[in-house]
Every structure is written in structure tokens, then in C-alpha cells.
Amino acid sequence: MSPINIIVVLAVVVLCGFAAYRVYGIAVGKKGCCSDEGTGITTCNTEQVTAADGPEDKDESHYPYVQTFEIGGMTCQNCVNHVTRALDSIEGTWAQVTLAGGQARILSKNPIDVDAYRAAVEKEGYRLLT
């Protein structure tokens, strides 16, 4: 095998390793649309949305069902806005989403429907992990 072929094979192996690492990070919720957590590199090119205002009824005592979920893939405030709007779109829901810790606190007037919340979050390109 010639030295050029060895270099090409090594380059392909290294690139495949980086690709596999990225896919793994996305699958376990450590990487998302905008950056690689911890690197400070931001490449967000998703549609920008403004912060959600939440429901008109902001009296927590009116929401008897409360559950906290971990959300995978959020890396910036725009991600938080997307997830908040998606969760708030479910009737009777008030979502409080934080980037720190990647969590969504769901307050609901109806029993918690995990599948509905999962579908709403996944539609926006994120993952409901717990």
C-alpha cells in the first residue's frame, strides 16, 4: 500500500470517528441544533422565535398536575423558546423551560399525557428524555 493510500484511509477513519461521536452525542441528548455543549461554538441556523408569553392563567393553584421532564438537544435561548411554545400549545398546559439543566416543568389542568408532550417536543426537533 502506498503512503498516499494510507493517509487517505487514516483520514476517512478519523472523519468516521468524529461522525460517530456526533451521532452518539445527539442520541443521548448531549448535542443539539446549535452547538456542541461545552465548546462555546454556536452554529444555530434554525428559525428564530421569541419567548413564549405562556397562558393567560398564571395562577399555579389552577394547575393540579405538575411534572418535570429532561429535554435533550437544547443549547440556546432559541431552543428554549421553541420547546416552550411547543409544550404551551397543548391545551391546559403551562410550560416553564430552562436551559440550565435542560428541564421543562409542566403545569397542567389535565392529567399529564407524556406521549402528547413527547410528540410536541420531537416535532420541534428536540427530545423528551424522562
TrEMBL record:
One of its GO terms (molecular function) is metal ion binding. It comes from the Bacteria. The keyword Metal-binding applies. Residues 65-129 form the HMA domain. Gene3D superfamilies: 3.30.70.100. Keywords: Metal-binding. Transmembrane segments: none annotated. This is Heavy metal transport/detoxification protein. It comes from Lancefieldella parvula (strain ATCC 33793 / DSM 20469 / CCUG 32760 / JCM 10300 / KCTC 3663 / VPI 0546 / 1246).
